[in-house]
Design a protein that fits this description.
The chain has 172 residues and is of the alpha/beta class. The chain has one domain. The chain is 26% helix and 20% strand. It has 5 helices and 6 strands; from the N terminus they run αβββααβββαα. It is globular and about 40 Å long.
Length: 172
């Protein structure tokens, strides 16, 4: 019996999603899968993230661990993504863990850039085919992440709550 290097779903010829569909599937999966359990997920936020980086999906778990997922529906998009300036400096990019997500069979796990994982998507499932390694981010990367999250909070117009333990405030 042939042994497979990676646990992979069978490619489904009928599943050719739009980019927005793939982003939505991954974004909605991150909070419910035990592998990631993200408490906050941003999908295709756009906007300036520092250095031009604008992730398709960005999630953060309850421990503050960040996950960057780039969704690809074509090989040419995958290949051009690797030439972006922030991909050439992995220590100053977003995501403690980084993945590409694509329809099953589109990308080969062995062609992932150093440290990157691969998620494969079928009509009904999402598989972790290759795990991401931990990326050691520098201070610049962490500041970009904080800025990215701060802008997301601002954009959903969260109110500011001021907590005070002074007697004057408790009598009001």
């Amino acid at each position: 019996m042939e042994r497979f290097k990676y646990n992979r779903p069978r490619p489904n010829e009928d599943f050719t999603p739009k980019h927005s569909t793939l982003v939505s599937r991954i974004g909605n999966w991150l909070p419910v899968t035990n592998k990631f359990s993200c408490v906050a997920v941003m999908m295709e936020r756009g906007g300036y993230c520092g250095g031009g980086e604008s992730p398709d999906v960005f999630g953060v778990d309850a421990k503050g661990i960040s996950y960057l997922i780039e969704c690809k529906i074509s090989r040419s998009d995958f290949l051009s993504d690797q030439k972006k300036p922030w991909r050439l400096l992995p220590e100053s990019s977003l995501g403690k863990y980084r993945y590409y997500a694509a329809p099953a069979g589109l990308l080969d796990p062995d062609e992932m850039p150093a440290g990157w994982g691969l998620l494969e998507v079928t009509k009904t499932q999402i598989w972790t085919v290759k795990d991401s390694e931990v990326f050691n981010q520098n201070e610049s990367a962490l500041r970009k992440e904080i800025g990215f999250l701060s802008r997301a909070i601002r954009d959903i117009r969260c109110g500011v709550i001021i907590v005070s333990n002074t007697q004057e405030d408790s009598d009001a």
